[in-house]
Design a protein that fits this description.
Length: 200
């Protein structure tokens, strides 16, 4: 039998095409519906080794002694491993040096934590490579305490912290410290104005 003559037959060609099409569809469908291979543990997207961000129930914590207080929302601590870490208190913004209540805010933070052991729950690392975190001393939330005393603003530009927001509202009503002034200037705006002065 001449194979070439059979292939040239239109009916045979259509039959062969139908068989090939059906076979291709069958193979594709089997592959598509098969379960994907699971990633090895080291390649899993949620593996701590490959994912620096952590959820609210597993945030990184560091502990150390405060060795220097820069202002009302920033200090340096020495960890248990002897490493210096610059900490910026998360979700609050205290008056700057040269700003009203800037000195008092620094003094109060100094009284709260200088030479004391502090636990820091890390939230993030900022653009200046400072550790953003919530500080605790014997269960006291230092971030909240600064706002409660009217010595820091709720830093709504970069954080979402409803409790700190509510503490600020209470301090405002009681006219504590910065809220005793008629029109206190936010540190964020103060820093912006200072930068503009230097650029002139």
């Amino acid at each position: 039998m001449n194979i070439q003559k059979i292939i040239k037959n239109k009916g045979v060609r259509l039959l062969l095409l139908a068989v090939v099409t059906a076979l291709s569809y069958f193979l594709y469908d089997c592959d598509f519906n098969s379960k994907p291979k699971s990633l090895p543990q080291s390649q899993s997207p949620s593996s701590p080794a490959d994912n620096k961000s952590v959820d609210a129930d597993s945030k990184q914590v560091i502990t150390g002694e405060v060795t220097k207080v820069a202002d009302g929302d920033t200090f340096t601590l020495k960890t248990e491993d002897g490493l210096p870490v610059k900490v910026r208190l998360y979700a609050i913004d205290a008056p700057e040096k040269g700003q009203d209540f800037g000195t008092k805010a620094r003094q109060h933070l100094n009284e709260l934590c200088y030479k004391k052991t502090v636990k820091i729950v890390i939230e993030d690392i900022d653009q200046y490579d400072r550790t953003l975190g919530v500080a605790y001393i014997n269960g006291l939330n230092i971030n909240e305490e600064m706002v409660r005393q009217g010595l820091a603003w709720y830093y709504s530009y970069y954080a979402n912290a409803p409790r700190i927001d509510s503490l600020e509202q209470v301090a405002r009503k009681e006219k504590l410290n910065i809220w005793s002034m008629k029109n206190p200037v936010r540190p964020h705006d103060f820093r912006k104005a200072e930068r503009q002065k230097r650029q002139k």
